[in-house]
Every structure is written in structure tokens, then in C-alpha cells.
Amino acid sequence: MDITIPRGYQFAGVSANIKARPNTKDVSLLVSNVPAVAAGVYTQNQVVAAPVVLCRSRTPMSHARAIVINSGNANACTGAQGDRDANNMCELVSGSMPDMESADVLVMSTGVIGKFLPMDKVEKGILAASQTLSSSTDGFLAAADGILTTDAGRKITSRSCQLGSREIRIAGMAKGAGMIGPNMATMLCCILTDAPLTSPQAQQLLTTAANVSFNNISVEGHTSTNDTMLLMANGQAGGAPLTESELAEFAEHLQSMCIELAKKIPADGEGATHLIEICVRGANNEQDARRVAKEVASSNLVKSAIYGGDPNWGRIVSAAGYANVPITISKLSLTLNGIALFAAGEPLSFDTKVASQAIRDNFNTVIELTIGDGPGECHHWTSDLTVEYVRFNSEYTT
Amino acid sequence: MDITIPRGYQFAGVSANIKARPNTKDVSLLVSNVPAVAAGVYTQNQVVAAPVVLCRSRTPMSHARAIVINSGNANACTGAQGDRDANNMCELVSGSMPDMESADVLVMSTGVIGKFLPMDKVEKGILAASQTLSSSTDGFLAAADGILTTDAGRKITSRSCQLGSREIRIAGMAKGAGMIGPNMATMLCCILTDAPLTSPQAQQLLTTAANVSFNNISVEGHTSTNDTMLLMANGQAGGAPLTESELAEFAEHLQSMCIELAKKIPADGEGATHLIEICVRGANNEQDARRVAKEVASSNLVKSAIYGGDPNWGRIVSAAGYANVPITISKLSLTLNGIALFAAGEPLSFDTKVASQAIRDNFNTVIELTIGDGPGECHHWTSDLTVEYVRFNSEYTT
User: Is A135 left (phi over 0), alpha (psi -120 to 50) or beta?
Assistant: First the structure.
């Protein structure tokens, strides 16, 4: 696998037996060799996990050195003990590394809600991770594996881009397959770059990228307590701050990489057999388009129809109708995998078998919905609702 | 079955082969022998079926004579043809009955979206129904059966109540098992009474009752295009208008009957193995409590956990957290079937096996969630999300 590792970072992923399954990586450490700027975007759930509270209080920042992540336990709904544990994780990292302060460390947790962290295991894991740090591809992959929970596979992206005379490198990793609802940054995601960015620049770039990527994905629409997306930029590509046009180009790269990573989550949604892209156009504004896309994506009726290869378009149109967004029925049109099913408020005749086969034959299903003639547009990605999803989620903790 | 039929009504339910399954009742007719007041509450979906448009323009009214209902076809998303067909159904009813105007008739349709009504079959059905009208229990039951679609069984309620010196009778029928979302009046429901009510009284009574019953149920939260709830009152109990205290007593009866009917819908939710009652307390106001209850009820993670007998309370607390309602974490408490799982923002230790068994052993699951110390409270009823629900809804039209 061809991975571009940004300059000046080291990685580790180790098994600390926090997860029930033995010998599965569950503690990851990402370290910048020099102070980096760091920006964050977080869950909008009011019930937030302890690591979110901690990170939110620290970002944006210009002295970030490390991100420590454990999987298998979300450290959410854990009260004051949870706050102490999150803080302790940062201290364990800084204590095991030279020249690092606890305040330079960010922390993420993911896994089951409402259990206290097994801090003895976490401590051993952090120590082991700090001793196996590496700037190699293997190190990066180990870290990307250590953040997974119910994911079927790792979710990574990397690229090298030429900005003027400078080669900038960007790499990212994400996790998520369930409890995925589009309200920010669903799940965990770390993007690392060696670009020289200021912390306000990093924050704005990240917020914008989250808005077109992780904010537009869902599995079942349940916003988690732990969603966190962090961007670190350590400037090790060298040179002067990015010019305005270089920044714009960087933003484009960042957005397309975030979309690429974000789509991997519903594509790997628990039990998913289809990645559904919902394109809403003609809304009065982007927010309205987003609401309609979210309602369609949240409809179990739409999602189970796609699972069954059923072009039951009435479910899609009716979901759009309860999104609390102005809709001009006479301008309402729908295509499914390019086949027109409903146009200008009237049903079209179409070959049900052909439409059904077009769903069955493709992992990707594209729903295009026009709701008026405004400029608002949104692309949302979700998974289908399958028998396997229900089976899996009825057996999670017990 | 002991059913109290209000005075001055006749009923019929016949098979017109609109539904695919042969010899299944699919046209129902409810007739008041004298002009009655009628009130309606309708879906808040912007994409509304033709019969909803028609009824909405007529209620509240004081000259209602009949409600005609077909199942098997929703007459939704059918454009101008759909409007003509709905109007035609009213004309077919008035044409087959003496002394009735088309404008005295209300109409409901339920079934698949986006297909034109087979008006030849509908016409034969209405004629047959008009010729078999009866004030007997059998007539009432036939009508209650004719409105069903994916329901496992009929949903009816009736009672006789003594208001002062007067005996007032009330009877109701409802249908619904899927596409059930709490935004009014989900599904179809007709309540008939012989009480003397004015049409503004009828409208206010119905709106209030809908708010504590049908507005607080869901199966998957998908608001349908056809939701309609009608109340007819023909005054055949005799006597003067109800006094204020009689009206209050009537309202209580109506509300408890609506709750009884409404609960039958998620209890019969497609594939359901549990009826889940979500009680939210301590909100700043009723609307906030309602939002939290709705988010919990809409969470596939919560619903599939109950299906699996899994007391995974983190899913419940986190769903409450993204309802956009102020929550005081330190006052957040949760019990599941009476077992305290989370209190004052801290996890409690409990016996997982006992909690799981309490879910498995009961069809009813009660989730009690306190989110603060305000006066706002709401009771919402929903079904669990099961493998059978997904299987069923992936095979609906094709």
C-alpha cells in the first residue's frame, strides 16, 4: 500500500486488552516531533464524553505534540471519574516522552458508553505505544488500526500535493461504522499535515471540510457522544506561511480527502450492503438542502427499500415532505440511479424490474432529488438498513 | 366482542379487490343518518395525498354525512388526477345515498404511494358498501377491517359514558403499522360520537386529544402523506349542548380512548416484538419533553437494543443529548422497566442479566428519563426495530 507520511510525525498502535477480543490494537499514539497547530471539530450532542470536553477546551492551539486514542471504551457518561481519566491519559503520554507537557496532548476515546476506563490497561498501552513510535508506513497503519471498533477495515487516506514550489503532505485516518449521525464530525478522524498553518487557519480549514464531508454522512443518524475530528499541522514541509492561493488549493485537497474518508464510514456501515448518495438540489439554501437530505437518509423505509432493491420512490418523496423545508410540489423531481421516477409533481411510468436491478447490481445507489429551483445543494452519504444491522445492534453489549 | 355503537350511524366494509390479496376488505363507509359536525387533524408532511387536501378544505364542518375510506392505494403523489379521483369518491358516495351532497362526504385513502386509484374497482366497492350499511356490531367491524393495510389486526375502541343525566356513546377505529411518525395524527383514525357538539368544540377536542395520543406514537418516525384523524358528532344522544363540565369530562374520555387506539399502532408495528413507552420528565416544557422522547424513539440503536433485550442505556442517554433541548447532565437519570441505570449524571452498577431479562420477559418496555427539574413531561409509544421489520420493508412493492 502506497502511503505518503507527512514529515515530522511518528505513530504507534498497540494492544492493551481494553477490547474484549484479545490481541486487537486498541491504543494509538500520534506524535509530532515539533509543536504543531491543532484544530478540532466536535459532536453537537449535549451529552459529551470526557475526552471531548478536554479537547474542546484546548483547541485551536499552537503547541500540540500528541494525540492519544483508545478504542473499546468511550469514556462517556462517566462523570467526574471520566474527566480525571481523560486528563490522566494526557499525563501518561507526556510522562513517557521527553520535552512534552500534559497540556500539549489531545485525547480521543471510542467504544462502549457508560463504563469507566480500565486505567491500568490504558497505562500499559500508552507506555508500550510510546516505546514503539515510528515514522514508517507500518507505524501509521498500526495507529489507524488501533482506533477501530466495529469497523470492517481501516479507513485511511494520504496524498502529496505541490503548492507552488513546495511539496505538502497530508494523511488522515478515521473510524466509524455505527452511531453515525450527521451533526459535525461523526466518529473519530485525525488529519495530519506538514503544511505551515496558523491555528486560526487550521480551525477554519477543518470546520469547512467537516461541513462538506463528515457532517454529511450517517448510518442510523444517532449522533454519538464522542465525535471528534482533529487536524494537526507541524510546518515540517518548511517555507513561509501558505499564500492565499496556496491556502485555497490546500483547502480543496483537504475537503476531497475528508469526503473520501467520510464516505468510507457509511460504506462500512454496520451490516451495510449499499452506499447511498443523496443529492438534493433546487433548495432555497444549503441548510434546507441538508435538512431534506438528512430526513431521506434517516428514513428506515427508504433505507430498507434500497436493501431490498425496491425502487419505492414514494418513501423518498414523502421523507422530503416532512423535513420542514419549503418544497414546490410542482417542481419536485426524483431520479434513482439515473432513472427518472417522478417529475414536476407527477408519477412517471418506468420499468420496475429495470429500476430494481439497477439497485441490486450496484453497491452505490444515487438518489437525485430536486425540490425547487433555488441554488441550495447538498450531498449526503448513508448506508442501507439491513437485517444484519439489526441483528448486530441487538447483540452489542450483552 | 362488546362494542358500543353510537346512535344514528351506519357502517359497511367490503372487498373491491384494490388490495392485491383477494377477498380482503378495502372499501369502508361510515354514515351518519343526520348531518353531523366533523373535525379533522392531518399530516404535517408537505407532500400530502389528494384525500387530505380535500378533507382539510372541508373541516371543521357542521353538515358531514359520510366518511369513505379505501385501503391498498394511498392516492398520494398522483397530481391532478389524484384530486379528481378523491372528489369522485365523494360524488360516488352521495350519488348512491338519498339526501346527501358530495360536499357532505369526507374521504381517506391508505396504501401504496404514487399509483393512480383503480376507479372502476373503487366505484363498485362504494356501491356495494352503500347497499350493505348497517348499525350493527358486524357492520362496525367490517368497516374497521376495510381500512387496514399491513396491520396484524383491527384497532377499535368504544365506550358509553354518563355525562350528567345523559348517556353518551363514543366509538373509534384506526389503522397503522408502518410509516408511523409523530407529527400529528399518524395514520387513519375515525372517532364517532352521538354527543351534541359544535364544530369548533369538536375541532378543539380532537386537536387536544391528537396531541397526547397519535402525535406521540411512532414506528420508524416516517411521517406519512395520508395521516388523517376525523371526529364526527351527530348529537343523536339528544339534549342540550354539553355544559362546560360535561365537555371537560367528554374530553377526558376522548383522550383516553385516543391513547388506547394510538398505542395499538406501535404495539402492532411492523415486525414489532416490544411496545416501548418513553416517559420524559423534568423538561422545561412539554415541547422539549416531546423532542427528547421523539429522538429516543427514533434511534435505531435504542430500538434494536430493546429487540435484543439489551439494557444498553448509553444509547438512550446519548439520543436525549442530541435532541436540541437543554439538558442538565447532573440531573440526568434513567430507569428501564423500573431498574435505575443512571442517576445524577453518573453510571450506577446494576445486574445486567436481571435488566436484560426484564426486557425479554415483557412485551411492554418502559423507559423513564428525567432530564432536569422542570415541569415538562411527555409519554411517547414506539415499537422496537427488528429483523422482521427490515425484511418486511425491503419487500413491500416489488
Answer: alpha
In this complex, do A347 and B300 lie within 8 Å of one another by their Cβ atoms? no
Residues A206, A195: Cα–Cα separation, whole Å:
14
Judged by DSSP in three states, A270 sits in coil
Residue position matching grid coordinates 383516553: B256
Strands (E), chain A: 9-14, 27-42, 61-73, 105-112, 155-163, 166-175, 188-193, 217-218, 228-233, 275-283, 333-336, 339-343, 346-347, 364-370, 376-383
Buried b (16+ CB within 10 A) or exposed e, A272-311: bbbbbbbbbbbbeebebbbbbbbbbbbbbbbbbbbbbbbb
Instruction: Tell me the CATH number of domain A275-393, given options 3.10.20.340, 3.40.50.920, 2.60.40.420, 3.40.50.720.
Output: 3.10.20.340
Distance CA A190, CA A207 (A): 13
| Polymer length of chain B | 398
Quote the CA–CA distance of A129 and A123 in Å, as a whole number: 10
Secondary-structure percent of chain B, ordered helix, strand, coil, rounded to 5: 35, 30, 35
Which range of A43-47, A309-313, B2-6, B125-129 scores highest in mean pLDDT? It is B125-129
- Options 1.10.8.60, 1.10.443.10, 2.60.40.10, 3.60.70.12; CATH for A9-267 is 3.60.70.12
* Distance of residue B327 Cα from the nearest chain A Cα, in angstroms: 7
- Side chain identity, residue A351: D
Beta bridge partners of A158: A171
DSSP conformation letters of A121-132: HHHHHHHHHHHS
Candidates A59, A58, A66, A61; CA nearest to A34 is: A66
**C-alpha span between A369 and A216 (Å, rounded):** 16
Q: Which amino acid is at B227?
A: D
Closest residue on chain A to B310 (Cα): A398
ipTM of model over 0.90: no
Question: For residue A262, what is its C-alpha cell?
Answer: 467520510
Q: How far is B358 from chain A (nearest CA, A)?
A: 13
CB contact under 8 A, A114 and B346: no
CA of A252 to nearest chain B CA: how many angstroms apart? 30
B221 contact residues in A (CB cutoff 8 A) = 298-300
Give per-residue pLDDT as tens, A364-392. 999 999 999 999 999 888 899 999 888 88
What is d(CA A362, CA A53) in angstroms, rounded to the nearest whole number?
A: 41
For the domain covering B9-265, report its CATH number.
Answer: 3.60.70.12
Q: Which residue of A has its CA nearest to B181?
A: A322
First to last CA, chain A: 37
The chain B residue lying nearest A270, using CA atoms, is: B301
List CB contacts (< 8 A) between B225 and chain A. Answer: 314, 318, 321
**Contact between chains at A44 and B317 (C-beta distance less than 8 A):** no
| Buried b / exposed e along A75-96 (16+ C-beta atoms within 10 A) | bbbbbeebbebbbbbbebbbeb
Q: Inspect the interface and report whether the beta carbons of B45 and A223 lie closer than 8 Å.
A: no
Burial class (CB in 10 A: 0-12, 13-18, 19+), B282: buried
Do B26 and B17 form a contact (C-beta atoms < 8 A)?
yes
A24 classed as catalytic: no
At residue A185 the predicted structure's pLDDT band, cuts being 50, 70 and 90, is very low
Q: Which of A222, A312, A319 sits opposite B300 (nearest CB)?
A: A222
What is d(CA A131, CA A140) in angstroms, rounded to the nearest whole number?
15
Q: What does pTM read for this prediction? A: 0.78
The residue extents of the domains of chain A are: 9-267, 275-393
Task: State in Å, rounded, how far the first CA of chain B is from the last one.
Answer: 37
Query: What pLDDT, in 10s, does the model give residues B239-288?
Result: 888 898 998 999 888 888 888 878 888 888 888 899 999 999 999 999 99
Taking residue B226's Cβ as centre, other Cβ atoms within 10 Å add up to 27
